[in-house]
């Protein structure tokens, strides 16, 4: 199997940063493209039934900062692109992977969940179980 398209979901966590570093190494070795994806988890924000424009704007800005940092980590010569979406992270990541011909997903094992004790690792676990392409979970 040839790996030419690597998806790296990012959220600003330490695990996400380690996944970025691993994906960069693999992209260099395989001459593959990196696609960074930030998902604003509106499910966690929707505790207040209606989201204000200010909250949505803040979440979008935070995502852009995370994506910009990921893009800056990539050495010159590696093709890269950044994407920002909203929704349930696991569902959005899988949909993105399918619709963008992803060959490999590289992600951290634990992200920045609001209810950390309950949700730790649940997104990566779901991706591993449901993904149609290989998934590398970086600890």
Order of helices and strands: EHEHHEHEHHE
Secondary-structure-based class equals: alpha/beta
Query: What is the strand arrangement across the widest sheet?
Result: 3-2-1-4-5
Helix content: 40-55%
Percentage of residues in strands: 15-25%
The largest sheet, given as strand count, sense and whether it forms a barrel, is: 5 strands, parallel
Poorly predicted spans: 114-120
Could you say how many structural domains there are in total?
Answer: 1
By CATH reckoning, the class would read Alpha Beta
Quaternary assembly: single chain
Estimate the mean pLDDT confidence: 87
CATH topology: Rossmann fold
Please, how many helices? 6
Structure explained in plain terms:
By secondary structure, this protein is α/β, with parallel strands linked by helices. The chain has helices at about 15-30, 40-45, 55-75, 90-100, 115-120, 120-130, and strands spanning about 5-10, 35-40, 80-85, 105-110, 135-139. The protein has a single domain, classed as Rossmann fold, CATH 3.40.50.620. The chain has six helices and five strands. A five-stranded parallel β-sheet has the order 3-2-1-4-5, with helices on both faces. The longest helix is centred in the middle third of the chain and has 21 residues, at about 55-75. The protein is globular, with a radius of gyration of 14 Å. Residues about 115-120 have low confidence and may be disordered.
